[in-house]
Amino acid sequence: MITLGKAIIKATTDKAEKREFRFLYDVNKPIVEKIEIIAKEMYGADGIELSEKAIEKVERYTKQGFANLPICMAKTHLSLSHDPKLKGVPTGFVVPVRDIRASVGAGFLYPLLGEMQTMPGLSTRPCFFDVDLEPET
Q1: Which of 92, 95, 111 shows the shortest CA–CA distance to 103?
Q2: 5 vs 99, higher pLDDT
Q3: In this model, does residue 90 exceed pLDDT 70?
Q4: CB of 95 closer than 8 Å to CB of 43
Q5: Which residues, in sequence order, are bridge partners of residue 108?
Q6: What is the pLDDT of residue 137?
Q7: Which of helix, strand or coil describes residue 113?
Q8: Whole-number pLDDT of residue 120
Q9: Which of 60, 52, 61, 93 is nearest to 76 (CA)?
Q10: What 3-state DSSP class applies to 68?
Q11: Tell me: the pLDDT tens digits for 21-43?
């Protein structure tokens, strides 16, 4: 165990072993181009398709000076694509970008891909339907 611990310490502190973090894209590229690079190079997509709402958001964030923020894609965890039914390493699909939201304080933009909930763990049916109230008590 001590040998393993020493190896971990060496690997995480040795300057020769350190690697600088770098994005897949140049953060100064336009928003749409950054999304397209991620979709093609990471997910194997043929391209992206932006909704009108997403196009409006690109224009808004660019005008507000947020175009240089990094991108964090919000998509299903069940597939490399936007579609949970596409398993393995799918190819030949186009990623629909339905909206783009900004977390300016955290420093990133997050496109919403396909149909997905943005709050994980919430059911599609609210639990208040199952609450039984007795008016007499």
Answers
A1: 111
A2: 99
A3: yes
A4: yes
A5: 103
A6: 66
A7: strand
A8: 63
A9: 93
A10: coil
A11: 889 999 999 999 999 999 999 99
Helix axes 31-41, 52-63, angle to 10 degrees: 130
d(CA 50, CA 97): 5
**Tokens standing for residue 13:** 């502190």
CATH for 22-117, options being 3.40.50.10740, 1.10.3720.10, 3.10.410.10, 3.40.1190.10: 3.10.410.10
Among residues 83, 67, 80, which one has the least CA distance to residue 116?
83
Residue 116, φ and ψ in degrees, nearest 5: -150, 155
Tell me the average pLDDT across 98-119: 90
Average confidence score pLDDT of the chain: 88
* Position 16 pLDDT exceeds 80: no
